[in-house]
Amino acid sequence: MVEFKNVSYTYPNGQHALSKVNLDISDGEFAFVVGASGAGKSTLIKLILRELTATQGDIHVNGFDLNKLKPRKVPDLRRTIGVVFQDFRLIPNLTVYDNVAFALRAIDAPMKYIRSRVPYVISLVGLAQKAKSYPNDLSGGEQQRVALARALVNDPQLIIADEPTGNVDPARSFEIVDLLKGINACGTTVLMVTHQHDLVRYFGGRIININTGEIVFDEVIGGADEA
Q1: Does residue 66 carry a pLDDT above 80?
Q2: Where does the chain show beta strands of DSSP type E?
Q3: Are 46 and 8 spatial neighbours (Cβ–Cβ below 8 Å)?
Q4: pLDDT, tens digit, for every residue of 207-226?
Q5: How many other C-beta atoms lie within 10 A of the C-beta of residue 81?
Q6: What is the DSSP string of 13-53?
Q7: Is residue 227's pLDDT more than 60?
Q8: DSSP state of 12
Q9: Could you say which of 26, 33, 109, 203 has the lowest number of CB atoms within 10 Å?
Q10: Radius of gyration of the chain measured on its C-alpha atoms
């Protein structure tokens, strides 16, 4: 669950990034966040991840009160969230398996759990045959699937996909959203930031449009894939 109540954020240089935002995303929802560059999308994500602290208002994410969250507890919050970035952020000298396992090793997960969980998640994103490959041997779409597997491996309550289709071709973009939709269908909340309005129009669903730091549209629309 993500809840913003009257949230504003002003950067130290005086730039107003968000203004009195109210937002509720329930467990199990899928929502697109759209808006022009500089509209406030990145600030919204940074507040959810507690990379920034709201100037005003209250934020709750996955049971954590972010206004009262002590720095030593921030890692606990982030373990409930999987993040997929536009630029993949894979480690080039690690195989697909080890890139995904890295997220579990970082939190000292038991080796037995790693050996069972990692192949399952790699298979889930359709890369079982690529487990021993290195990032440079993969296409852009395959690299993004590895990034998605890495975000999923901790079994997070919430997936934040920040422009996940920005570096892949149009056909692969639809595949990535299809994967996210499938993950959402299994109960994981998904928040996808995108500027690709063709994807939004095709898939439909909840659309949250941010403009100059304010939510100007928050509705559920039908998609072309429902026709």
Answers
A1: yes
A2: 2-10, 16-25, 30-34, 56-61, 64-65, 81-85, 158-162, 189-193, 205-211, 214-221
A3: no
A4: 999 999 999 999 998 877 66
A5: 22
A6: TS-EEEEEEEEEE-TT-EEEEE--TTSSHHHHHHHHTTSS-
A7: no
A8: T
A9: 26
A10: 18
Q: Nearest-CA neighbor of 117 among 145, 147, 150?
A: 150
Q: Which residue has the tokens 């935002």?
A: 21
Residues in CB range of 217: below 8 A, 6 or more apart: 207, 208, 209
Which of these ranges, 56-60, 103-107, 171-175, has the smallest mean pLDDT? 171-175
Mapping DSSP to helix (H, G, I), strand (E, B) and coil, where does residue 207 land? strand
Cite the beta strand spans of 13-167 per DSSP E.
16-25, 30-34, 56-61, 64-65, 81-85, 158-162
Between CA 126 and CA 169 the distance in angstroms is: 18
Q: Which of 95, 194, 74, 105 is nearest to 146 (CA)?
A: 95
Show the tokens assigned to 17.
């990034």
